[in-house]
Amino acid sequence: MAEVFRDALGIPHIRARDVGDLAEAQGEVTARDRGWQIEVARLRASGRMSELIGEAGIAWDVFARRARLDDTARRAYARLDPDSAEFVRRYASGVRRGMATTGGAAAEFRSLDEAFTDARPLEPWEDHDPLGVLHAAHALFSPLPVLLSREHVAATLGEEWVDVFAGYGDLGEEAVPTSGSNAWALHGARTGSGMPLLAGDPHRTFELPGVYQQVRLACDEFDVVGLTFPGVPGVQHFGHTGEAAWGVTNAMAHSVDVFRERLRPTGDGYDALGPRGWRPADVRRSLVRVRGAEAVEVEAIETERGTVVSELSRRDGELIGWSVRLPARAGADVGARALLPLLRARTAVDVIGAFSSWVDPVNRVLAADRTGVVLSATVGATPDRPPGRRRRAFDGATADPAPNRPAVPAVEVTDSVVDANERPSDPRIDLGWAYPPPHRASRIRHLLAERRPRAVAEFAAVWGDTAGGSLMAGLLAAVRPDDLSPAAAAALDELRAWDGRMDASSADAGRYGAWRSGVARRVAAHPALAPLRAPHPFGRVFDAWVGADVQVPAALPRLLRHPALAQEVPSIVTEAWEEASVAPAWGEMHRLLPTHALAGVPYVMAPGAGLDIPMSGDGETVRCTGSTSGVTERSWRGSVARWAWDLADREQSLWSVPFGASGHPGSPHFADQLDDWEGVRPARVVTKWARLRPDSDAGAPTVAGAGGAAG
Predict the structure, then answer these.
(1) For 117, phi and psi rounded to 5 degrees?
(2) Closest alpha carbon to 222 in 76, 105, 342
(3) pLDDT digits (tens, 9 = 90+) for 184-207
(4) In a designed cystine with 226, which of 235, 372, 432, 635 is the match (CB 3.0 to 4.6 A)?
């Protein structure tokens, strides 16, 4: 039995006597609030989305089966220590109850039943399913898609083009916008209270319902507020225990190895060529049941190096595939042993110790506590490869998997520290091959030095900073003013005086964004890049990384300098400006584009169509609202939460998400945080129980469809 309370935003605050009851209550309340979302997450992990949404789920299901995501979660659950296994088991038990009473009645399930003219009963969650949700959330949050995109570039354009299409380029202020995450910490010597402050914002796809769920978990052992992945117990990436707090950013590490596999059929299976000759591969075949269509057979091949995640193609008389060595699968460990220790952390050292069992993705962690200690650490599993061996896939015939690198000790922070996915100055934690440009990190450092914030309430100017326009100088230098119409020439003169801020109301920002897109479209259509449009052999799930239209924007600065295009750049840039000079203000084009699992399902209306609000920011501004230049100006990726932890007084802490606490479209808390999120006005964390309203207790009878949903 556990008590459940809500604050004014519908955020669940759960109180129980012991950890087991708390875990079960968290699962039940999550199922009430986010039943549709967590069922989708569970089916994604098991490669069964097509059973729910039909053909729109096939591409993902094929990948999930090939990568053996569900099998990895089962193995990881079987290897958990008893306390962690019980924590996960009790959470899954709570989910089963919540889905049976409330979550399974979500409107999206009914909409699908009507569209497909059938009824699909929901199956109870298995005990390992929360680990599947955690694993699936990170399966493509690694260099795997980028490494495959480099292989496609090499195969179609040639090896010399790989560095041009780095995806993420360390090009300083000249780099094209990309997305990442931000985090910073101030030592108590820099704050008004004398206690540390931590803050940041993770950048991911704008999913609806939101990627992160605000939650409070309290029992006799601990009382924690934080942001959690719905469907996973505890608080993973961002949390405040009262005595200690933490937040993460992606370390951009080379956390997976990809291998080019040579295969030969052997009756019902395959042999794979490795350094010690041909060895049998493990082959499992399964049927993806597709709602409203024929089933699809999937062949899941696993070599000594990893799971083959691509299609098989014939080349030079051999079958060729691409395998990935995911650290979670290699070690049968998805990092779930960190979940309970994080909740129990009382010091920054405890936090870093808990993250010592973290696996994937590799993160930079900032942790602080009420003794004033602030620590920075890099955590997660990374193959021990020198920098030059992180650029491309390996030849599976000659290369073996590498052991993981040893952990690097945490570093104490005595003033301030900023992490924004940039290349680290410490070579010991330079674990990637290429990084986003340093603009966001440099900008945050500048703002912290200039404004000297001493309380979390002063962080809004950092989160909301829109200074960008990093590609403009190169475009201006290439334009031919004499070839412009008088109106376009006058608009260009106005742009030269622009401050570079990507504000929604800015006409210059709109012209610049449209100009950048016009250049990207013309470059993508250049004959020199035509081979890049050839079909790739990796599978449809990788289209978002491998296609020319998505690769060109990330490589635009290098492409504009490349000898194959350089002579035509002045005409490309000039023609694009003539077209863009009459573009509307940035916010008229740059609008929110949330994704929803129903978006590709015929005859079903996906929630969120009315949430296309105008957006300030850009992909590489601190206020991250990323789009794909040349494809769409709408923002599909950015800050999916903002958080600031005050170690002096937890009720001074701040948090916000783009949408709301509830996943139910009819709830008043479905998107009630959107306006304040867009305005960079995060809410204060409420921890006094007297200021919360009681809700239906977990473990108590709940009428299906009533009371349990947030709102």
Answers:
(1) 50, 40
(2) 342
(3) 999 999 999 999 999 999 999 999
(4) 235
